[in-house]
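In response to reviewer comment 3 from the previous cycle, which asked for concrete evidence that the modeling workflow produces usable outputs, we include below a single protein chain processed end to end. The sequence was submitted unchanged, and the resulting structure tokens are shown without manual editing.
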Amino acid sequence: MYAYSARMTSAAVAGASGYAGGELLRYLAQHPTFDLVAACAAGRAGEQLAAVHPQFAGTAWSDLVLDETTPALLGQADLVFLALPHGESAALAAQLPDSTAVVDLGADFRLRSAQAWSRFYGGEHAGTWTYGLPELPGLPSAREQIASSTHVANPGCYPTAVALALAPLAGAGAITTQDIVVVAASGTSGAGRKASDSLLATNVMGSMTAYKVGGVHQHTPEMEQSIALAADLDTDQVSLSFTPLLAPMPRGIVATCTAQLTGEGDPRAIIEAAYASEPFVTLLPEGQWPATGSVSGTNSAQLQVAVDERIGRVIVESVIDNLGKGAAGQAIQNANLMFGLEESAGLDVIGVAP
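The workflow returned the following structure tokens.
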């Protein structure tokens, strides 16, 4: 059922029926080294992949049958991707062999603070794994930490867009970290595949709405943690106001991130230097504004920066594909680093717009 070669690295996916799981399978299908040996989907086990993800129809994987989610099956792989709802990864990860490399796309192991986990997610904190945002500044470098780890927590989609926008400025001391404001819009796939009245086409098309307003969105502490890591600060030295919006599009995030300037350095020059050699992050030429369509279907991020001289604030616009750099693409990027591969292996960088 699955192709396998001793020269390849065997990979398994838990949560293969979800949007992020489907995107993982798409990347794995074109990956030169990772070889799929199990695609697990608890609720849709026994179904053919093309029936669950029609984009695979007519491909070599169209007849692949989704498996039951069992630690025994997943544990046969060298590499396991957990694309499960928040709070479900920890129990499964605990049953995998210690030698298995794991990238968790959920939130279970992202936060360092048990108190923050309890407040925003509820229940017992499972612990903290290496945070998988390769471009995050700091010492030792995020890349070095990921490459030496067997367990990596993939960042959330909103936190990825925000950290890419503001982390270089925080790390350079160019912004104050106590007055950060973020307003970001996401496509509907960011809410997952579970049916919901608020995600019905009738309610989404031609409309846009805010949700989880007032500092209650679960990604808020992760954003603050990322900024703190970049600036070598305690998390309580960062305060961020986050307002998320649901946009009438299937995928993509556009984040407007603003902060008060300190006068230390030129914001554009700082961001330009930070990403000059990054394969997936691009600072656009002045006057050109990022669009979600430009990064759709990719692991890329595009940024633009402006300064409001009147009030002394910097505005950084950041766009990513929430299923790409915000989920599955970044998971593949992290796995490439963990196995000493070319970081861009199997990943797309050119969007499909329009």
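The radius of gyration is 20 Å. We consider this sufficient to address the reviewer's concern, and the full set will be provided in the supplementary archive.
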